[in-house]
Design goal:
3 domains; three-stranded antiparallel sheet; 14% strand; Toprim domain-containing protein; single chain; 10 helices; 333 residues; globular; 47% helix
Length: 333
């Protein structure tokens, strides 16, 4: 550990586009930097493969795929702007709290290991993100026991062997952290990040979109009346006042939506590696968990001892079939 560093609160993080924490829209959490880099590499390759697939279909004239390609290109841009975090093993509440406070507006994606420890870390992050005061431990039955003392005393048991992040969030009463705030879509369209009125108005969430619609309609009516030359000055003044009133209402609605977005923060999602792998680096290396390899007795050695070999032919055949199916359906998401 580096001199004067704080292992309880410090952590490794990086962004391909050097995105500042207060400007981050997506933060990806892992237990190691290897997992963070593996996730980035796998996801980037998948997106590029999908784009290439659509390009190939376009060249063959079988499908245009323009909208899908634009969506994928946007996904790639967002991935490159994201912040990737490694806790360096068991994450502390100090690490979580510090990064959450620095990136409150961002969506947080939990890529902890696909094991009971990783599931426990995901629960701890969620409770911290929801500003709950809590403690947790593994019970004698193997379940995770979470005691929430924020507003009294609430004891919840989470089954780690049949783990479901959404069900756990509901049981803990913090399901709201999984909700996506539609204001985030509009904010990504800002041409000037310092000006919340510089975004694509077609992406405004309700009720700000409704307020903008009234403002736009009244403004268009005012301009049309002025250009026609058939409307008297008094009526134009009334239309102008109506447009100003609707503009003010729109400004209030958008500012209110932005403040609510800042209070709620971004969405939290559970994003472990695929089934059969322990972590994202194992998935990158195609390093399946040992329990998924069949073992069969094949012979005896000269000393009469059993010789056990790992038979992977069937598993490899299934894996190749899965990969073929992925390639076949990759472009129909």
């Amino acid at each position: 550990m580096a001199r004067n560093s704080n292992a309880a609160e410090g952590l490794w993080f990086a962004s391909p586009r050097d995105t500042a924490l207060d400007k981050a829209t997506d933060v990806y959490w892992f237990e190691s930097a290897f997992d963070a880099m593996a996730y980035y590499q796998l996801t980037k390759a998948h997106i590029k493969d999908s784009i290439h697939g659509y390009e190939q279909m376009q060249s063959e004239g079988t499908y245009s795929g323009d909208s899908e390609m634009r969506e994928l290109e946007d996904e790639l841009k967002e991935l490159n702007k994201a912040v990737f975090v490694s806790t360096g093993g068991n994450p502390s509440l100090g690490q979580m709290r510090g990064m959450i406070d620095a990136t409150h507006q961002a969506n947080h994606h939990l890529g902890f290991d696909r094991d009971e420890a990783g599931q426990t870390f995901a629960i701890s992050f969620a409770m911290t993100k929801a500003d709950r005061t809590f403690n947790s431990h593994i019970g004698t039955n193997g379940n995770l026991v979470v005691v929430d003392t924020t507003d009294g005393y609430k004891r919840t048991e989470i089954d780690l062997k049949d783990f479901s992040f959404p069900k756990a969030m509901d049981a803990l009463g913090i399901g709201h952290i999984m909700k996506y705030n539609e204001m985030a879509i509009y904010l990504k369209s800002l041409s000037d990040p310092q000006n919340i009125f510089s975004g694509d108005c077609d992406l405004l969430p309700f009720p700000a979109s409704s307020a903008y619609g009234k403002y736009e309609s009244s403004w268009q009516e005012l301009q049309s009346s002025k250009q026609s030359g058939l409307v008297c000055k008094e009526e134009l003044d009334e239309l102008r006042q109506e447009a100003i009133k609707n503009a003010d209402a729109y400004h209030v609605a958008l500012k209110s939506a932005f403040e609510e977005y800042k209070r709620q923060g971004g969405q939290t999602t559970y994003n472990p590696c695929e089934q059969g792998f322990k972590d994202w680096n194992d998935q990158l290396l195609d390093k399946r968990q040992y329990s998924q390899t069949d073992q069969v007795e094949t012979a005896f050695d000269d000393a009469g001892n059993d010789v056990v070999v790992e038979r992977e032919e069937d598993f490899e055949e299934n894996r190749e079939q899965e990969e073929a199916e992925k390639k076949h359906f990759r472009f129909h998401r």
